[in-house]
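User: What would this chain look like folded?
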Amino acid sequence: MEKRENNFAYIDGANLYNGSKSLGWKLDYRRFRIWLKDKYSVERAYIFIGLVGKNSGLYKFLQEAGYTLVFKETVSDSDGKIKGNCDAGLVLNAVCDAYENNCDKEIIISSDGDYAGLVKFLAEKNKLRVLISPSVSKKCSILLKRTTVPIAYIDDQKHILELKRKNPQ
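Assistant: Here's the prediction, encoded as C-alpha cells.
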C-alpha cells in the first residue's frame, strides 16, 4: 500500500480572497479545500487571516470546510480600511514546520513577492511542493516567478473551483 503524503498548505487569506476576486469569479472555498487534498495531499490547510468581529460567520464556515485559521490582530488605517498583515506569521509557521519536519512538503498560496525568500528556502530544502497563485500570471509577483519554482494558477482550475452556490461570506 502506497503511503500518502502529509503536506501542509499555508494560505495568505487576504491575498487569496483579493486575487480570486480579481479573476471575475468567486472561489468555492469548500471545493478549494477538497482540491488541495486530492491534488496535493494537503492534510492541513492554514489560512492566515485578520481577526474582525463581524466576520465570525466566515470564520466558522472556513473551519467547517476544513481549514485551520491563524488569526492576526487588525488595525485600521487613516481611511478606516482594516489591515491585518499576516506575512510574518505565515513565514514563521512554514519555516518551523519545515525545520521540525512536521510535514512532507509545503504548498504556499499567494501571489505576494514578500514570500519569495520563503519559497526559495523551502525549494532549497526540498520542502516545497508547489506555489499556487490566486491571480493570473501577469499579476503574480515577478519576485516569485524569478524563484523558478513550479507555479499553479487558480484561474486554470475555474471549472472546478468556481462557486456555484452562495457561501456565507
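The chain has seven helices and eight strands. If you want, I can go into more detail on any region.
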